[in-house]
């Protein structure tokens, strides 16, 4: 093989080597670009999660404050001498609780929406989650309060405190950073054992409310106050 043939062969191999190297560089660049795109998407999703957590935490703080005021109101109502002031405070608490329920639906949508309440608007189909149940049970308890002592006068404050404790537990579970899987449906996809326990506790509160207020009809009121 003469020198010219050798040089020609080297050039051909060099061109192949350059083409292979260029292809490798292009593949590596594409992989790096894809990884950076995924990283940026994860950062954006995490920022969205932080935003949702901040808003739901602000809502939860308002719930905790309102339930705390409700418990104090229940414990001190017999010391109030002015019927008008008592009624105004009761109405203000009921309005605050009702508003918090509606605002809470933005973070905690109804669960099991396939069958129950199909005739209702979308936000009201299915079963209300336990965290919102606590606010509704507190609403009914406050509505039933009178200034005079009644059969449940001594433990109305305790009942409202139980509602607040369940709300705090549910809010803490919702904000748990170890379970930040997806923003939409995060609460709905929480551990089954936790949700089951919360539902049992909510049903216990519901039973207590019915025994405390025998004349109350929760189902008939769902259309007007959810």
Q: What distance separates the N and C termini? A: 93 Å
Helix content: 55-70%
Q: Say how many strands there are.
A: 0
* Secondary structural class: mainly alpha
Could you report the average pLDDT, rounded to the nearest whole number? 78
Give an overview of the whole structure:
The chain has 226 residues and is mainly α. The chain has one domain. It has six helices and no strands. Helix 3 runs antiparallel to helix 4. 23% of the residues are buried. The C terminus is likely disordered.
What does the secondary structure layout of this molecule look like, with pairings?
Layout: H1 3-76, H2 83-104, H3 130-144, H4 156-175, H5 192-212, H6 218-221
């Amino acid at each position: 093989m003469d020198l010219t043939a050798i040089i020609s062969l080297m050039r051909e191999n060099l061109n192949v080597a350059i083409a292979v190297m260029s292809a490798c560089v292009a593949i590596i660049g594409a992989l790096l670009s894809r990884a950076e795109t995924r990283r940026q998407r994860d950062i954006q999703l995490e920022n969205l999660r932080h935003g949702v957590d901040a808003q739901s935490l602000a809502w939860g703080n308002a719930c905790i404050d309102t339930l705390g005021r409700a418990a104090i109101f229940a414990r001190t109502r017999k010391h109030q001498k002015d019927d008008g002031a008592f009624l105004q405070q009761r109405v203000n608490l009921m309005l605050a609780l009702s508003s918090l329920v509606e605002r809470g639906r933005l973070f905690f949508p109804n669960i099991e929406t396939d069958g129950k309440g199909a005739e209702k608007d979308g936000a009201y189909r299915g079963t209300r989650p336990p965290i919102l149940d606590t606010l509704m049970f507190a609403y009914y308890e406050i509505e039933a309060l009178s200034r005079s002592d009644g059969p449940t006068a001594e433990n109305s404050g305790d009942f409202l405190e139980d509602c607040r404790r369940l709300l705090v537990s549910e809010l803490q579970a919702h904000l748990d950073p170890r379970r930040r899987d997806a923003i939409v449906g995060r609460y709905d996809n929480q551990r089954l054992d936790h949700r089951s326990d919360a539902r049992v506790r909510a049903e216990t509160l519901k039973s207590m409310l019915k025994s405390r207020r025998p004349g109350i009809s929760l189902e008939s009121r769902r259309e007007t106050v959810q």
